[in-house]
Amino acid sequence: MKPLTLSDLHTRQAWPLNQKIDHTVGAIEAFVNYCKEHGRAPYASFSGGLNSTVLLDLARRYVDPNMPGVFCSTGNEYPEIVRFVRHTKNVTIIRPTMTPREVMARYGFPLVSKEQAHAMRDIQTSKSEKLRNYRLYGDGIRTCGILARRWRYLITEPYMTSEKCYELLKKRPFAKYNRSTQSLPMVGTMAGESKRREMTYINRGGCNIFSDDPTKTHSAPLSIWTNTDCWDYIHRFDVPYCSIYDVPGIDRTGCVFCGFGAHLGGGRFRVLYSLHPKLYQMAMNYTSNGYTLRYALRRMGVQLPDEQPELF
Ligand code: SF4
Q: Which residues of the chain are modeled with pLDDT < 50?
């Protein structure tokens, strides 16, 4: 089969909604059939966010009305999300073994982006000189995973930066659930969310990648969708969605303390502060090496809603 290209992805992203629905239903059916053949139970990984709401609805509307959803609760989600999840039928709630506070204290804050936080973690903790040098200076060939000049100040900061929260708060609980229930998830990620996801889509050759080893199988049936498609779908079918999306300034609905993308405006902290001030204060007081998340965000230049702008 001819390998996929970026231009193929862009062509698919420009398809009309009906064509995308057909394509996605085909991908869900293929995934469900694969699960049947390999003795696994399919489910939709459900975050209560826009994409996974669309994915769960598509799966139940067109493929299996009893498709289960699974939500991983860190205890640090917007209360609106938790309420919405609890009101959605047939959703199992799982939990990580560590709290966000413990994860921050042990591994550091999730700042900037997954890739940059990973680079920082390696620079701060890796025993491999070679890896540290790569994260700092690259190898003259590859460009991914190198700490950008703008974030070099993080190296000498007194707190730690890391992307480990994702593994500890999300990935491991799902892996444990999959093992204990012999299940496999579909996820609602979209290729257009980042360059990295675009490359993943192209390298995998589509929405599904099937392996003889079910743990290596991956299904992301909404890969070619955009945010606009998700909203069009929700409005067309009158799908219930979480009320947090009606609040201006919400750009993501994961953990409320997440510092990924905070440098791009910090709007989500303003929303959190105005809707749930206690939760906001709790998040700002998470510490790494005795320094608070508030301190780290200030150092990034994020204008926090309960602080005066600096006067020059
Ligand atoms: S949403 Fe942010 S803070 Fe939460 S697990 Fe994912 S990366 Fe970490």
A: none
**pLDDT at position 131:** 94
* Predicted TM-score (pTM) of this structure: 0.91
CATH architecture for the domain at 6-100+165-246: 3-Layer(aba) Sandwich (3.40)
What is the pLDDT, as a whole number, of residue 311?
Answer: 55
Query: Which residues are near ligand 1 (CB < 6 Å)?
Result: 110, 165-166, 169-170, 254-255, 258, 260
> Which ligand 1 atom sits nearest the alpha carbon of residue 254?
1
Q: Whose CA is nearest to atom 5 of ligand 1?
A: 166
- How far is ligand 1, taken at its centre, from the CA of residue 258, in Å? 5
Among protein residues, the one with the nearest Cα to ligand 1's atom 7 is 166
Contacts of residue 244, defined as CB under 8 A and 6 or more positions apart, other chains included, come to 78, 80, 81, 84, 250, 253
Domain map (residue ranges) of the chain: 6-100+165-246, 111-162
The number of helix segments (H) and strand segments (E) in the chain equals: 14, 10
